[in-house]
Please model this.
Amino acid sequence: MVDFSRDPTARGFFAPERFESRVYDCEVTGEIPKSLNGAFVRVATEWLYPPRYPHDSIFNADGLVAMFRFRNGIVDFTERWVHTVRWKNDLAARRQLYGLYRNPFTDDPSIREETIAKPYLRTLANTNILTHGGKLFAMKEDGPPYELDPETLATRGPMTFGGKYRSETFSAHPKIDPVSGEMICYGYEATGLASNAIFLYTVNRAGEVTSEVRFEAPYVSMIHDIAITQKHIVIPVFGFETSLARLKAGKIHWAWNAKLPTYFGVLPRGGDAKDIRWFKGPLREMVHTFNARTEGEKVILEAPVGESNPFPFFPADPGNGDPPTVKRGWHVRRYTMDLASRSDGFTEEILYSQPIGAFGRIDDRYISLDNRYVYTQFTDPARPFDEARAGNLRGRVTNCYARFDLHGHGMSTYFAGDTHSLGEPVFVPRSATSPEGDGYLIGIASNLAEMRSELVIADAARLEAGDVARVILPFRLGSQVHGNWLAGDHLAFT
Ligand code: V55
Ligand code: FE
Model:
């Protein structure tokens, strides 16, 4: 029996949707730029079956992928589940067999022996969706990516990279170098549950693994995202901890621990495990990065950063929680690691006092290069909010996108409306050759008043001007983790 009544988050706008769908020629307001030829793809977390444990993380829900296919000003929409091993097993059993987030010891006895031995079989492909090497794939950091058919979003199966990818895990944030076309990707807990092995790979344009580096983390933690420069790879390690003992005790995979330090690993590209240098400092929370660059002997990283536990479903063990004095929320911050210095510390600057959200995006053509702009979402409590139509969420909806200028010329803001809440923004260049920042900011807005989702399109250089166009869906979409724009010539769409 499917019963979501124990789950307090399964109400209202983000109540489970659970269906696959196709909408031909979506409703549009405004005018979609004809140059937008490609697809916006996104992945949401959505339970096929309710969780076995009410205190579980939404990160343990199945992946529901969606595509808005744009051509000549019209948009077709498709949404499909990622048919992972786990999704198929649950559907065959007609119930939730899998226990807590990344803890196979809490799985149903009928599968537990296998999932403890091969925890990567539990992966959900629910975090990010990207193309590289002519393939479209959805990812989660605890197992292999799943390749999808770019036309239908049907699941093709786990990716193997010709057998040369040896980590048991992948990441939701591989980085594609726009100069070489290479993908830098990695897995942590690479050799099994709570292992501190990190395997890092370079995959060429053709999708073949060309290098592997194996090294160890200073402690086992969530390495959700990295950053690359033309010369280095930066690996943030902070704040979460796990152990086999913890997992055997039946607890959720991660605990926050405010007593842990932050480390930034700096590995030269093309280097070996012995070349990695760990810079250490006070605890920060950096689930996502904006970008990084190498300037002489300095490696500079910008990111949306906080100082406290971002995830209430991964609480601290007694005594390890955040002190009451800790700064809450995220800010645009810059970190500098000086390779010429003998010190193993890093320096930190808060670039803007404006509180922001946890997502951080740039014009992806500038990954690893010297970018000027960063994009994120934030809550502006001073904007109008229509409580009568959208409910009692004043000050809690994410009503704006922001563009911050790293050269110091301030921020600009897009406001989604007085009944709307926004997910992660994605930058789409106007054309392949347009300069940095010349293009559109797009993403999904939840229309709380009309209980439907809308894809908003704003001019990234004129955010204050509001929408260029909106694509209106006749239903709600689940809570997005990440989305990306795929230029039309990346894949053979029909
Ligand atoms: C994140 C999301 C995940 C996960 C680990 O947003 C980190 C961060 C949707 O799953 O497993
Ligand atoms: Fe992420």
Observations:
- The longest strand covers residues 62-71.
- DSSP finds four helices and 32 strands in the chain.
- The pocket of fe (iii) ion (ligand 2) is lined by residues 127, 172-173, 224-225, 288, 482 (CB under 6 Å).
